[in-house]
What does this fold into?
Amino acid sequence: KEPQVVKFISQNFHSVLHWKPPIKTENSTKYFVEYLRYELKWRKKAECWGINNTFCDLTQETLPIDECYKARVKVDNGEWTYSIQFCPSIHTIISPPEIKLTPREESILVRVNHGLMIPHRTFKGKNRSRILDYKEHPGVQYTITVSIKAHDQILLEVWTTYTTKNKTFEIQSLSPGITYCLSVQTKIEDNISAPSMQQCITLAGKEHVSLHQ
It folds into this structure.
């Protein structure tokens, strides 16, 4: 009579504990959630104590993001089912950024629009509720992959990669008549996002043709 498959699902450091109901459970089954921080002692999650949902938002309880946590769930008078250790900085899924390319005569200006804000602390609101405070992570980096494709080519060949902390970056010393395809990944420490949607631009001297893929 224990909950099944207890695990964290986290995107952009918004971390929610999920589980599956016990076998042959009833719709009226109530669940109780506790979390473990700093390997000290288990704490009750008040908002997820005696709930019918099979998920519990533990974003506030998994701060700071560079620590590791565990959680457990049970039904009334049942045994605990435990999650594996969850480390937000490693296990969260970072969304890919959006990019805007501006062609110039022999260069491409890359602008990254990510809008990734990291929860870093909580504070009490007017009604004594806990409110999350967000900020930009100081260690955010962007990896820009540049591939080239001549007019008679179908396959792309990686030309070079750049890593920068800047959201605006100019790729210089490019050649007219070549199609350059770019994608960007966001990196926070050892965690890296999927690539952004690839965009291609053909430089043609003072005139530019922009191709989107």
